[in-house]
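A common beginner's mistake is to predict each chain separately and then try to dock the pieces by hand. The better habit, illustrated here, is to supply every component at once so that their relative placement is modeled jointly.
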Amino acid sequence: MSKSGVGARAKRKEDERFLYGRGQYIGDLRFPRMREVAFVRSPVAHARLKDVVIPGHLRSSVFTARDIAGVLPLKAVSPLPGFQVSEQPPLVTDKIRQVGELIAMCVADTRAEAEDIAAQISLEYDELPAVVDMLDAQKPGCVLVHDTVKGNVYVNVAFDGDIESVAKTAPVKVTRELRTARQVMSPIECRGFIAQWDSRVNQLILHGATQFPHVVRTGLSLVLQIPEIQIRVISPDVGGGFGYKAILAGEEVCLCWLAMRVDYPVRWLEDRREMLVANANCREHYYNITAYADNSGKILGFDAKAAVDTGAYSAYPFSAAIEASQVSAILPGPYSIPVYRCNTAAVATNKAPQLPYRGVARPGVCYAMELVVDAIAREIGKEPHEVRAVNLVRPEQMPYDNITDKHFDSGDYPQLLRMAVEAIDVNAVRARQQRGEKDGRLIGLGMSIFSEQTGHGTTADGKRRVLYEQAFARLTPDGRLDIRAGIQSIGQGLETTLAQIGSECLGMDIEDIHVKLGDTEISPYSSGAWGSRGMIWAGGATARACQELADRVARIGAALLQTDLKSVVVRDNGVYGPNGNVSLRDIARAYYLAPSELPGDIDPHGLEVTGGFTPTRITGIHTGAAHATIVAVDPETGGVEILDYVVVEDAGTLVNPMIVDGQIFGGTAQGIGSALFEEMAFDKQGQPLASTLADYLLPGCPDVPNIRVFHMQTPSPYTEFGIKGVGEGGAIGPGAAIANAINDALKSLGVEICEIPVTPRRILHALSTQVRRRA
Amino acid sequence: MKPAVFDYVRPATLDEATRLLGEKGVFSKVVAGSQSLGPMLNLRLAQPELLVDITSIPVLTAVSEQRDYVDIGACVSHADVEDGRIPDGSRGLLALVASRIAYRAVRNRGTLGGSLAHADPAADWISVFPLLGADVIVQSRRGTRTVAAENIMVSSFITVLQPDELIRTIRVPKISARARWGFCKFNQKAGEFAHAIGGVLHDPENDRFRAVIGAIETAPIVVADAASLFGGRFGPNLDARLDKRAVLALLDEKNVRDEYNRQLLLVALKRAAKQASES
Ligand SMILES: Cc1cc2nc3c(=O)[nH]c(=O)nc-3n(C[C@H](O)[C@H](O)[C@H](O)COP(=O)(O)OP(=O)(O)OC[C@H]3O[C@@H](n4cnc5c(N)ncnc54)[C@H](O)[C@@H]3O)c2cc1C
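With all components supplied together, the output reads:
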């Protein structure tokens, strides 16, 4: 290992810029003559739009669907069989399907003036009944959100198993109905774009905060119907992604259309209200689960009916199928379950489209499975971790193919569990519960354990390959390393970790390695940053490019040392032979500036390489983690305090353990939001009930405890260096662990809550209902 | 989320400010810390023609201590109170309340006068000043008048202030060394507005025993003689003596129907009573 290579706790190279406030976000960029856009959005959830009335004097500043008729609708079509296709026009053509939907684009010199214009536009429409609940939406005769989506179900994803036979003999049966709230992913930087036409290079240039500039370019080319080569997408610094910037939506499409027609740049900066009421929806799941077990808690059969509320549109590019297909495929989690049946519906409603938030379906799935496991434990009177232990896939079974054909490449789940049990000290908590608290609060212990399929290169059913990844590496004439990748860093430190990979391969210090990201013009094609794939795929591609570069450097070094290739190694900033060494700097100088010093047969491909990588198996690399927490619940107020929080994570070989810890802290904070705070509620008319962060509660610093992180490192056999994905894991476990802890605390009162977030209101409601039931 | 067009002035004197507010035919609004008005302007819920910024008027940031009371200028910030930059006649109550309002960034700018004038039922001062029996001194071109703090708020976001009036001073009576208080604000997360507020004050020197129940979607319930809630005089184990039925009857009067709120308000008052009787 070189000192700044794989495994080093290197300080993040990008932090200097961030900490001194020199980052550049869309809100920081200024272009001459740039104008600003504000949108007229729908005030209602479901209606037929009859007219958009624009005062005559504003006609040249306002654009509606009629104006942009040449732009094709966004269409995200899942390859899953039976998927019903819908279209999302960038501006409403005839039917409004959600509050906040885009109806007209207004342009002015400033955003305030653009909003002045928007305020003068009036809408004529006939309201339709709104489809708000995903269970009601599936009932026969319910109003349709899209005529093309029959029964309001985009797709059903099902696995079948012979549950009936298990049901006949299983001694233990547990049934639970569970819900997770609709959430709003909340990066500090909302979405934002600047579009302009560069007439010199005949190119549309879009600056936008995005996790995947190349995918945005491909999507824009499709809907705008111009060649990809005429589009350049540049993602400067991104102030948080979390999946919210792995989409292509109407705002940027409209902006690009406008930029191609005017001779000034145009910008749209999303504000927090737009984000909350119109855009950043995610998560909402429903489960009805019956589990069958024997008296040791061993699960014999698992039967689930689930639904995900996908909202009004199939969001581009991941489609309305992404969560439903994941739910059915990964619900078995880290357990070996012999008989499994599951049907998950992706349901259309009149809410903002559901987008893939950090962890995608996994936090909901983990919540549902882990609550049921605890329910089994309560039913048979065992410690929840003991029930987990008898069901976990064991290390000697690796590699293991589970009931839904998920291929576990490696890992030791029982060990993760043991470490968590020890770290949280289960026995001490039980003793404390026996003693009781002076302040009358109730102590609860909760755990969750999950297997996270990371960096998969296929659709969720594992059947179709969906991507590749490349990276470019060049040794510059002055002997430094220039790495470029099409993936974008969204806060996870890729400018450092990709440099660490370069360092590992070429023996250079990361100080001499510069990583450039996020610009379609200067990088190879990339599927982007999502699905905990960055290090596996872009890291792998960087390794391949740098390894090839190391070979070429070795060849030149051997020539300069007048020795044969086999006898040299690349390390410590140079090529080392039996009788001397030559620095990378001298090699670069010789190659570029003094080629006459080199023999004539030197490889003319030069000191730049585009490398590509795909894991040996592309069905995903399985990362595992166990979360454990202790909470104190105030039964008088419903207040919850997290007293301790432990994460034990096995993400294979860690390229930079410090960055991994940071990823886990941030993800866990978001998971605490899911568990205790975050909920976007709607009224019966489909109006979102939170329009500011005073109503949509995010966890703040005092709400996030000191998180204790422990690592195991089981390398994956299928990736470079044994890397596994880790970007999302933190967000997956907390909903389940905290909800289980609260239920553990309330156990003595006979109360169990099967919905997150577990708010004070829900706790008090459950307690008072229980009191009434007992009376 | 940008405001509609408005004019902005920052007068240096109270006279100038009240003159501007009194101008006929202009929809003007006072702005102090802008922590409540700012968001309302941005959301276009408020669209005044003229903003009169009163934060550079010296008398509005002045504080003076008298024998029986402290006069606090309307533009004194929550942070000023939190950090003890003003004389304390409340034996720590004001500083404690201030420290739990919002986040430090908001406290740095938000003002006592702005908070009272805004009359958000879930805000803190609108409950705490009535508990202390404070007076609010109101100024306009027409002169000054004094309004008891408990009479400032009419209902949610509505006060007795006329459009041409501003709050100049809050006159907070001092409590004696033998006085005891308890204050309980329940919110789900730090920095959030209250879901429930309960306050109890007992001062044997002047025989005051008061209570407040706040954050109820309208003006707080101020109980001038708290003996009615505790079945008698102030004393030990006050919380155990809380007459729930009496409290619930008060809540019924104010149409507080939500079970969650009712429960929290009871608990808030009980905990305030406990703190007061144990301190
Ligand atoms: C995130 C956040 C959290 C908050 N949490 C809390 C909380 O927990 N508890 C709490 O109590 N408050 C909370 N607040 C509100 C905060 O305390 C504000 O400071 C306060 O409500 C208004 O004070 P201001 O000086 O900012 O008034 P401004 O916003 O400037 O004005 C508010 C209103 O009062 C009027 N006004 C201002 N000064 C005067 C005056 N002297 N005379 C007459 N009218 C006047 C204005 O015209 C306007 O209508 C929170 C605010 C924010 C942004």
